[in-house]
Design a protein that fits this description.
five-stranded parallel beta sheet, Heat Shock Protein 90, 4 domains, alpha/beta, five-stranded antiparallel beta sheet, Beta-Lactamase, Rossmann fold, 661 residues
Length: 661
C-alpha cells in the first residue's frame, strides 16, 4: 500500500511494461503514468522481441503496447504476448487511430485502445483500470471454470466408482446423464445415448415415469423396484432411488438418482421363503406318513391274523387280499411322503452310472409301454457315489412322467456323459447355484407335449399335477427332488409346449478309490426260538401295540406292555429288565429315544428295537446312545416283526437269570 500527501491510503502502484519503438513517445507515456498516480513503469521495450523477452521473465500487471511497431505484425505480437503472459491484459496505444482496427482488436482480446493524440493521464488511468478489471474478471472466470472442471471430474470419478447405476434428470423428470456403469450394463453407446425408456420393462415403465415427475411436484425423495434390461436382453431387478436437486431459492432444478441391483437379494429372499414353506410341508408330510403307517400297520396285521384262521371262507380270503393290497398302496404313498420329507434311509455306494442304468433299461422299457420307444446312449465311464435304489426310483418317476407326456407314442432318450460345469448353472429343485466341477450327466429327453414356463416353475411343488383328478398324486417330481438332493445331485429342466421336455441330472464324480461294503444278509429264523423271551412293547397307539403283542405272544414271548416311556420305566422297575425293548420312536410324553437312553444308562447292553413310521435318518438325528440293533419300519406285517425280533434276540438268547439287575 502507498500513503498520499494528504495521508490517505491508496492501492499499491500497478507495474507496467511499456512497449514503443519511439523514445519520445515512451517519455510522454511515462509522464502520463506518473501523473495518473496509479501505476509505475517497471520496464520499457523498444521492439517486439525485447517485449517478449521481458514478458516471459517478468511479472507485470498490464502491458502498454504500440500497435504499429516496425518489422512485425501487431496481431502476431499480441498473440505471442498473451501466450507468454496469459493473465496480463494488453492496452494498445497508437498514433494511427482507426476505429475499425480498434473494434477488431477488442474482439481479438485487447483490453483497451488508446490513441496517442488524445492520450492524457486521466485517459490512461481509465484505460489501465478498465484493463485490470477485465483481467480480474477473466481470471475469476478462468478460476471458476477450472473449479467447475475439477468438480465435474471429481463427480464423474465418484459416479463411475460407485457400484450402482447413476443418472441425472431435468426438473421434468427426463434423464439426460448416466454414469459409465449404466452404459456397461445396458450396452448403450456413451457417445450418443439412445432413449433410456427402452431399457425399462413395458409393464413397469409408466409407473417409473410417473414417479420421476412426482419428484418435481412434491419435492420428496422417490424409490421403486423394477426390472431393467441388460445388454444380453435379460432383465434384472433394481431398486431405484432419487432425490431432488435444488438451486437458488430452493427451486428444484433436477433429479439425481441411482439404481441398485437387488436381483440376488430377491432370489435369496424367495429361496428363504420357499425353504421355509418346504420345511413346513415336509414336516407335515412326515407327520401324515407317520399316521398312515400306524393305520396301515393295524390293517396289515389284523389282515394276516384273519388269513391265519383255517376256518375262514375262500371268498373272504380274496376280500382280505384286496384290503392288504390297498394297505400296501397306502404304504407306498407314505413312503413317497417320507422321501419328500427327507426321512429316508440312504445306502450310497460307488457305482458305475452306465452299468447301473443298463441294468435298469429292460424294466424302464416295460414301464414306458409298447407305444413308446426307448433310446439309450451311455458315455459316462467314471464312478460316482449313489444309492442304486434311489437312482431306480428317480428313473421310474421320470419314465412314468415321460410316458404320460406321450399319450400317442413317442421317443424317450436316455444319455450319459462326463461334463465339467462352470459357474452360472442353477439347480431347478432348490434354485441354488450348482458348484463348478466334474459331474456325471444323465439326460432324460422325451418327445411329448412339453410344458410352458409357468408349469415348469411349479413341477417340484408338492401335490402339483397337470393330470386329471384321480390320475396323479402330484408327489412324483417332489419326491425326485428330495432323492436328488439327498444324493448330492442337481438338475436342470428345459421344456416348451409341443417340443418335449429335457431333465438333466448331475451327480458329482468320485475322485478316488472307494471301497464298497457288502450289504448284510438277514439271517433265517425258525418257529420257537423266541419262546421264553421277555419283550417290553411300548407304543401309544393301542391298535398298533395290540398287533405287536399278539404277534409275539403267538411265538411264545412273555410280554410286558406300556402306552408310553414313563409307564415302561415303571414296569422295568417292578419286573426287572426285559430281553428286548420294542418301542415306538415317537410317542406323546417320553418317546422311544429318551426311554432307550434311560434304560441303557442302567443296562448298557440292553437291546432296543424301534418301531417307527419315520426312518433310521430321524433315529440317527435323535442321537440314541449305544446305537440301535434294528429298526422295524411301519407299516409292517407280523412276519416282518418276528424276523426283526429274532435278529435282535438270537445272538444273546433269552435270559434265564436276572443277571442284569
Amino acid at each position: 500500500m502507498a500513503v498520499s500527501a494528504a495521508g490517505t491510503v491508496r492501492a499499491a502502484p500497478v507495474r507496467l511494461l511499456l512497449v514503443d519503438d519511439d523514445a519520445l513517445d515512451r517519455l510522454a507515456v511515462r509522464r502520463c503514468v506518473q501523473q495518473s498516480g496509479i501505476a509505475l513503469v517497471a520496464d520499457e521495450a523498444a521492439s517486439g522481441a525485447e517485449a517478449l523477452r521481458l514478458a516471459d521473465r517478468g511479472a507485470y500487471d498490464c502491458i502498454l503496447l504500440d500497435y504499429y511497431l516496425p518489422g512485425g505484425d501487431g496481431r502476431t505480437l499480441i498473440a505471442d504476448l498473451r501466450r507468454a503472459a496469459p493473465d496480463t491484459p494488453v492496452v494498445i496505444f497508437t498514433g494511427q487511430g482507426d476505429e475499425d482496427v480498434a473494434v477488431e482488436l477488442m474482439k481479438f482480446g485487447v483490453a483497451d485502445y488508446l490513441p496517442k493524440a488524445s492520450l492524457t493521464a486521466e485517459r490512461l488511468a481509465a484505460g489501465v483500470r478498465h484493463a485490470l478489471e477485465v483481467s480480474r474478471a477473466a481470471a475469476a472466470q478462468r478460476r471458476a471454470e477450472e473449479e467447475l472442471r475439477v468438480e465435474a471430474a471429481r463427480f464423474r470419478t465418484l459416479a463411475n466408482a460407485i457400484p450402482q447405476l447413476a443418472w441425472m434428470a431435468d426438473a421434468a423428470g427426463h434423464p439426460y446423464w448416466f454414469n459409465q456403469r449404466w452404459f456397461d450394463y445396458t450396452g448403450d453407446a456413451a457417445e450418443s445415448p439412445g432413449d433410456w425408456r427402452r431399457f425399462h420393462h413395458p409393464d413397469h415403465f409408466g409407473r417409473i415415469e410417473q414417479g420421476l415427475r412426482a419428484i418435481a411436484d412434491s419435492g420428496m425423495p422417490w424409490e421403486d423396484t423394477h426390472p431393467l434390461r441388460g445388454r444380453d436382453g435379460t432383465y434384472r431387478w433394481y431398486l431405484s432411488r432419487a432425490l431432488p436437486i435444488r438451486g437458488a431459492g430452493g427451486v428444484i432444478s433436477g433429479v439425481l438418482g441411482t439404481c441398485t441391483d437387488i436381483t440376488d437379494r430377491i432370489q435369496a429372499e424367495e429361496m428363504r421363503v420357499q425353504t421355509q414353506k418346504l420345511a413346513g410341508v415336509r414336516m407335515l408330510a412326515g407327520g401324515v406318513a407317520h399316521e398312515i403307517n400306524n393305520a396301515m400297520t393295524v390293517v396289515l396285521g389284523f389282515s394276516q391274523f384273519l388269513l391265519a384262521d383255517p376256518g375262514i371262507a375262500e371268498q373272504s380270503r380274496d376280500e382280505i387280499g384286496l384290503i392288504q393290497r390297498a394297505a400296501d398302496r397306502a404304504a407306498a404313498v407314505a413312503r413317497q411322503l417320507l422321501t419328500y420329507s427327507r426321512h429316508v434311509a440312504s445306502n450310497p455306494r460307488a457305482i458305475q452310472l452306465d452299468a447301473a442304468l443298463g441294468d435298469m433299461a429292460p424294466m424302464l422299457q416295460r414301464l414306458l409301454g409298447g407305444g413308446c420307444q426307448l433310446v439309450t446312449s451311455w458315455s459316462c465311464t467314471e464312478r460316482l457315489r449313489l444309492d442304486v435304489n434311489h437312482l431306480q426310483q428317480m428313473m421310474t418317476i421320470l419314465v412314468l412322467n415321460a410316458r404320460d407326456a406321450m399319450p400317442t407314442g413317442g421317443t424317450l432318450t436316455l444319455s450319459t456323459e462326463e461334463v465339467a460345469l462352470g459357474p452360472g448353472v442353477r439347480d431347478a429343485v432348490t434354485g441354488r447355484p450348482v458348484p463348478p466341477g466334474r459331474y456325471g450327466q444323465l439326460e432324460v429327453r422325451d418327445s411329448g407335449t412339453g410344458m410352458d414356463a409357468e408349469t415348469v416353475s411349479h413341477i417340484f411343488d408338492p401335490f402339483f399335477t397337470t393330470k386329471p383328478v384321480g390320475l396323479g398324486t402330484g408327489m412324483g417330481l417332489p419326491v425326485l427332488g428330495g432323492l436328488l438332493e439327498e444324493s448330492g445331485g442337481y438338475m436342470t429342466v428345459a421344456s416348451e409346449p409341443g417340443s418335449g421336455t429335457r431333465f438333466t441330472l448331475y451327480f458329482p464324480l468320485l475322485t478316488g478309490t472307494v471301497a464298497e461294503q457288502a450289504a448284510p444278509h438277514p439271517g433265517e429264523h425258525g418257529g420257537n426260538e423266541l419262546a421264553a423271551a421277555t419283550v417290553l412293547v411300548v407304543d401309544d397307539e393301542p391298535a398298533v401295540r395290540e398287533v405287536a403283542v399278539r404277534t409275539l405272544q403267538e411265538r411264545g414271548c412273555r410280554i410286558l406292555q406300556a402306552a408310553d416311556g414313563v409307564g415302561a420305566l415303571e414296569l422295568v422297575n417292578r419286573h426287572g429288565p426285559p430281553d428286548l425293548v420294542l418301542a415306538d420312536l415317537l410317542m406323546r410324553g417320553m418317546g422311544g429315544a429318551e426311554l432307550a437312553t434311560r434304560l441303557r444308562s442302567r443296562w448298557p447292553d440292553l437291546p432296543v428295537l424301534f418301531m417307527s413310521g419315520q426312518s433310521e435318518v430321524l433315529l440317527r438325528g435323535l442321537g440314541v446312545p449305544g446305537g440301535v440293533e434294528a429298526m422295524v419300519q411301519k407299516p409292517f406285517r407280523p412276519d416282518d416283526l418276528v424276523g426283526k425280533v429274532y435278529a435282535a434276540l438270537v445272538p444273546r438268547g433269552p435270559s434265564t437269570t436276572d443277571s442284569r439287575s
